[in-house]
Specification:
Elements (H helix, E strand, L loop, with lengths): L21 E8 L2 E2 L20 E2 L6 E6 L12 E7 L8 E8 L2 E4 L3 E2 L5 E7 L11 H6 L1 E6 L2
Antiparallel strand pairs: 1-4, 2-3, 4-10, 5-9, 6-7, 6-8, 6-10
Length: about 150
């Protein structure tokens, strides 16, 4: 909103940020859950550290999740942010990124080096990567998002 770029480049006025939580398995379930289903280990309102989690040390492993529907029809959707909380638990380096799948297109965020303490990994998209257009309610309700091991 700083007059640069071609999307969301000016003051947006009153906006609402809505958080959606995983409610099912997406198209990829490569990670190993602590127990139960993968999505049930990452659907907390507040991250719970080592109480529930999914894990993988295999490069290119992906875990995607479906999400609850938005629940109302907004006037505009200015963007989607995918967020994960992660850490490494072994010696050496480990990197991961968040991924978002809309339609047939999977968009990958930047790869982030993980430390031994939990940290936040995120990516923000102002437009739908599947068609480069503004996000619509149907896009949000069909969205899948998750994580990928990159190194």
């Amino acid at each position: 909103c700083d007059t640069t770029g071609s999307v969301n480049n000016d003051f947006l006025g009153d906006v609402k940020v809505v958080t959606l939580y995983p409610n099912g398995a997406g198209d990829s379930t490569d990670f190993t859950p602590l127990s139960g289903s993968n999505y049930q280990n990452v659907d907390e309102v507040l991250a719970d550290g080592d109480t529930t989690y999914v894990e993988s040390s295999t490069v290119s492993d992906k875990d995607l999740y479906t999400f609850e529907n938005l629940g109302y029809t907004p006037e505009s959707i200015y963007g989607v942010q995918t967020v994960a909380v992660a850490r490494k638990d072994d010696a050496g380096s480990r990197e991961m990124r968040v991924i978002t799948k809309s339609g047939a297109t999977t968009k990958s965020g930047s790869s982030v080096a993980l430390g031994t303490a939990y940290g936040v990994v995120m990516d923000f998209m102002e437009t739908n990567p599947d068609d480069s257009a503004a996000w619509e309610l149907a896009d949000i309700n069909a969205l899948q998002a998750g994580v990928e091991v990159t190194a």
